[in-house]
UniProtKB/TrEMBL annotation:
Functions as a ribosomal silencing factor. Interacts with ribosomal protein uL14 (rplN), blocking formation of intersubunit bridge B8. Prevents association of the 30S and 50S ribosomal subunits and the formation of functional ribosomes, thus repressing translation. Its main location: cytoplasm. Keywords: Cytoplasm, Repressor, Translation regulation. InterPro entries: Iojap/RsfS/C7orf30, NT_sf. PANTHER family: IOJAP SUPERFAMILY ORTHOLOG, MITOCHONDRIAL ASSEMBLY OF RIBOSOMAL LARGE SUBUNIT PROTEIN 1. Belongs to the Iojap/RsfS family. Interacts with ribosomal protein uL14 (rplN). The gene is rsfS. This is Ribosomal silencing factor RsfS. It is found in: Cytoplasm. Pfam families: RsfS.
Amino acid sequence: MTVSERAHELAIAAAQAAADKKAQDIVIIDVGDQLAITDAFVLAAASNERQVLAIVDAIEEALLNLPDKAKPIRREGERGGRWVLLDYVDIVVHVQHTEEREFYALDRLWKDCPTIPFVDRDLARAEAAAGSGE
């Protein structure tokens, strides 16, 4: 089972919103074959609690602004700002402080699951401009 079209749309939008707020180590993992409760995990890291919360806010705003709006059914961990989980049913977003990201290593835990390619659009534009000699 691969991710649904809706889950893919949400995951890419969430990842881009995280990238826009300078999140690090953004990964989308297709967990649909392993979990019945969601299709994908979006993982992102930030170097401090304030940035974690800014990334979370940006993701929520971006998904609300999609043509088919999405709101999380659950939001956990906001108070500490070290690991915030946003559950959109089709996807679950984990925004973690860098230390939590390294310690809990969700990437390693789900290493047998395929990843969904994501390239930050700003990075892609910069590389395209560099390649064209601009």
